[in-house]
Amino acid sequence: MKNPITYIRQSLSRRLSLMVVLIATIIFVAALGFLFIESRKAVRQEAMDRASEVLDNTVLRVNSLLDRVVIATDNFEWLPVRHLETPDSLLTYTRRIIECNPDLNGCSISFEPNFFKDKGRYFSAYSYNNLEKGIIETEQEGNEQYEYFYMDWYQLAKLLDYPVWTEPFADYNPEAVYTQEIIASYCKPLKDREGKYMGTISSDISLEWLSKMVSSVKPYPNSYSIMIGQSGTFFVHPDSTKLLNETIFTPTLEHPDTALTALGHAMQRGETGMRQLKFEGHDSYVFYKPLGSTGWSVAIVCPESDIFGGYNRLYNIVIGIVVVGLIVMLFVFGRIIHRELLPLHTLAQQAETIASGEFNQTLHVDKRIDEIGKLNQSFSNMQHSLVNYIEELKHTTAMKASIESELKVASDIQMGMIPRVFPPFPDRQDIDLYASMTPAKEVGGDLYDYFVQDERLYFCVGDVSGKGIPASMFMAITCNLFRMIAQQNRAPWEIATQMNTFLTRDNEQSMFVTMFIGLIDLRKGILEFCNCGHNAPILDGKFLETKDTNQPLGLWECKAFKGEVIEDIRDKQLLIYTDGLNEAENMQQERLGDERLLELMADTAHLNSEQIINKLKDAVSRHRAGAEPNDDLTLLCLSLKTL
Amino acid sequence: MKEKVLVLLVVLVNSLSIVAQKASEKFVFTPQWTAHAQFAGYYVAMEKGFYKQAGLDVEIVHPSVSQTAMNRLQNRESQATTLQLCQALEIVDKGVPLVNILQTSMNNGTVIISRRDKDPLKQIGARVGMWYAGFSQVAICMSRKEHLNYQWVRFTSNMDLFLKGAIDGTLAMSYNEYYQLLQMGFTFTENNVYRFSDHGYNIQEDGVYMRRDYYETHKAQAHKFAQASRKGWEWAANHPEETIDIVMKYVRANHIATNRTLQKLMLKEVLRLQIDKKTNKREFRLRPDMVKFASQMMKENQMLNQEVTYKQLIAD
């Protein structure tokens, strides 16, 4: 199983398509989010307007019924006061009220206990519609079993002293049979001419019509209407088991619900409004409005799923389309980008093949004129250049190898020109001589030589200007010249003069050589020498001061080089060197220097020539610290021992 | 021989008539109020067959406006009825000797609820609702003692007078009207409820009573009924959910406007009131000190002509 991040990172097409889809997602989310929020607000407002309108119409219609009841009751209010002398006439009047007002179910004019002396404790003139018989029944309803003056409808008007609607209640039958019919009464205190309370006039209406009317209000398929009394009791509710049995607060008894409690209280206070809450298990909007002065309240419960049904459907479809679209986009973009980048992939494979050494790999010909086409073309050009270069390189390498081989031969020849067998004079114990030449390149321009002839030790150390092959060739000439001229038993300055004469001839390259030429009389220890522009040798730990300075050999004509003589150098160490020693550079181009050289040469009396040269070579090597040699290094150290 | 045969026949006829009488004799029990969880133990005893197991043919008949529990007992239409202690004292005082065969309540559940956030005891002269059917003796005695000068307004069965503001306060049962008001969205505060049980009036309430003359001839039946009823209450305490199922069956059959939640709360409170505060047990006994206290209090308030003693109420 691949790591998803690695899987994505491995492919440019995957990365690009993912980025495109990500950006598209952000844009979609922002645009659709804004659209949906605004749409939801609009849908909500529309629902509120619609529900409020429906609720207003319903309440208007219900109120018109309630108003008719109030007006009917008020219209007959004066009758009892006028006919107190003939209480039985009130029975007829209550009947008349029912006849004149088909909205009314019943009407009673009830008096305080013992109000009429000849009527005993109870007098309540009552007429009601007997729906079973289809007639209006009239009776005096008070008796020991029905002490009406303790009934709510009677006492409310009496105690409150103003007209009042009772809470709706189930009609009570004296035979202890409860009917499901819910009625409500409008009750008004009856007062005599002095304003003293006499009794209560009450008009009953069946809530059947009202209930049907309120129930039929259905602005949305699953919306429903409820009506509660001032006690919060349901009098209209689609679930008939709740009618009279439950209040809007019942669910809060076991599970406190502040939203529902607040709604109930708002409805009880007779407020008009809308609340969003979880009502009877569903997220709903509840629109409520009071019914006149009854203390009752009607509400339309609209489940959120109904109000936002269309909106949610649209939302889900759009989200579905967007999600599918993004997935398709991801796939399509992936394919397109993959196809577009395929030449790059091919190119990468070909590059790998070329990188593995197959420089003649045939490149795919791409006719595209875009960046990828140009890249392909450039890569093709680069391949051709590379092939040519490789060919050239091969040739050059071969040539270089040949040159190196030749240089090796030349080096061997050069090294063969200088004596390299030590000790040089094994049969002579008095001569301690050791020399070393290390070219900076394969061949160098330094030289040294020595030989003994007629108890005389001839020696020289030289440094040809420049480096490499030209210098080595000049060195070869110089070397041969020295040996040829020196063997004629001449003094060092004569050797120098002759060599200069020879070297300046046809020296078109203006090459020259600095040289120290010496001659030691082995019997007497006398040193004769000629310094032709060469570094001052070190004799016995000090630089050898020369009175006269000669020019290097080969520069221009000179009739006589000057030389010097030191009477006795026996038991003294003489070091002759080229500038590859004191001017040896490290990585920071810092030279070894003359001071350091003198330090190295101090306390070397106990060392022989070979040990001194090795010590100096080690010092140079340490000073360079890995840096390439900047010049040829030639050292010659000798001492003549007194036997 | 003839005499012997005659004697045998007489004995046989008498025996048969007694058997026939016993087989057909119904034991009518009437709770003092409409069907609800206040009488759960009796419904349970009926439905779980505890009465039948005791050999009783019990019928539960609820009272109506014209046939109150007291009327039914006095008229011998019911053999037993539940009454509050104070009611029983009144009836005995009026010359109808009663016997308490089972005391269920150990605590007083009456409360006064003020419509405003005000201590009911500070509302002197307030209109306070009381039940049309009674149950208000302790409250009246207390109001007199505290010189509250309440104007008592009798209400029939609901809280409409209170809710619409026609009265300032009302008597209520902690297991019934209290929860009805809560269900009506009424807000209870720390001040507006006065519990008699917390103020030295923890007078026992519901118990099962029968006429003493009936008791004297039907002691075994009385005892069996009491035992089966007690068993019913104990079962109800242990099986509240199933008990509510049974209560709701009676509630529906009697068309009572209530609901399961309300009945659950009522049962819980009724069961709580059955537990004696000192012993923390459901004791099912009438306390002599309670009888004496209630009797003296009512006598002092002219509700009784003479004190009714504990002995007058209990069975032999």
From TrEMBL, chain A:
Compartment annotation: Cell membrane
Domain HAMP: 338-391
Record-given protein name: Sigma-B regulation protein RsbU (Phosphoserine phosphatase)
Keyword line: Cell membrane, Hydrolase, Membrane, Transmembrane, Transmembrane helix
Protein's UniProt keywords contain Amino-acid biosynthesis: no
Organism: Xylanibacter ruminicola
Topology in membrane: Multi-pass membrane protein
One Gene Ontology biological process: signal transduction
Recorded GO CC terms: membrane
MF terms (GO), sorted A to Z: phosphatase activity
Chief location: membrane
A family per Pfam: HAMP
TM stretches of this protein: 16-37, 314-333
Statement: the UniProt record of this protein carries the keyword Transmembrane: yes
From TrEMBL, chain B:
Signal peptide range in chain numbering: 1-22
Pathway the protein contributes to: Cofactor biosynthesis; thiamine diphosphate biosynthesis
GO biological process: thiamine biosynthetic process
InterPro entries: NMT1/THI5, SsuA/THI5
Listed GO MF terms: metal ion binding; transferase activity
Pfam families, alphabetized: NMT1
Organism domain of life: Bacteria
UniProt KW Transferase keyword: yes
Domain (SsuA/THI5-like) ranges: 37-242
Key words, A-Z: Iron, Metal-binding, Pyridoxal phosphate, Signal, Thiamine biosynthesis, Transferase
Catalytic activity: N(6)-(pyridoxal phosphate)-L-lysyl-[4-amino-5-hydroxymethyl-2-methylpyrimidine phosphate synthase] + L-histidyl-[4-amino-5-hydroxymethyl-2-methylpyrimidine phosphate synthase] + 2 Fe(3+) + 4 H2O = L-lysyl-[4-amino-5-hydroxymethyl-2-methylpyrimidine phosphate synthase] + (2S)-2-amino-5-hydroxy-4-oxopentanoyl-[4-amino-5-hydroxymethyl-2-methylpyrimidine phosphate synthase] + 4-amino-2-methyl-5-(phosphooxymethyl)pyrimidine + 3-oxopropanoate + 2 Fe(2+) + 2 H(+)
Matching SUPFAM superfamilies: Periplasmic binding protein-like II (SSF53850)
Subunit structure: Homodimer.
Family as reported in the entry's similarity comment: Belongs to the NMT1/THI5 family.
PANTHER family: 4-AMINO-5-HYDROXYMETHYL-2-METHYLPYRIMIDINE PHOSPHATE SYNTHASE THI11-RELATED
Function: Responsible for the formation of the pyrimidine heterocycle in the thiamine biosynthesis pathway. Catalyzes the formation of hydroxymethylpyrimidine phosphate (HMP-P) from histidine and pyridoxal phosphate (PLP). The protein uses PLP and the active site histidine to form HMP-P, generating an inactive enzyme. The enzyme can only undergo a single turnover, which suggests it is a suicide enzyme.
Protein name, entry field: Thiamine pyrimidine synthase
Species for this entry: Xylanibacter ruminicola
